[in-house]
Amino acid sequence: MCAEILRLINEVGEKLVGYAWVMEYTERKGLHIHFVGYLNGQSHRSSYLVSRLMGDIWRRVTGGGWLLPLVPV
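Given the sequence above, the corresponding structure tokens read:
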């Protein structure tokens, strides 16, 4: 799972000014990742397009097997 996160960051990296992620395991959800990407507000008026791009990349690098809920702000 770490390799997939690194591929996501490499592909969308120039759009992000920062990011944070953590991997967790719970009995109910199993192994999962929380990821927050920070955008430059001077360059992006909305996070929607970048969120969609990240979702497309995530589905491609994981083979579509992992969920990426998009929560644009």
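The chain has a mean pLDDT of 82. Try to locate this feature in the token string yourself.
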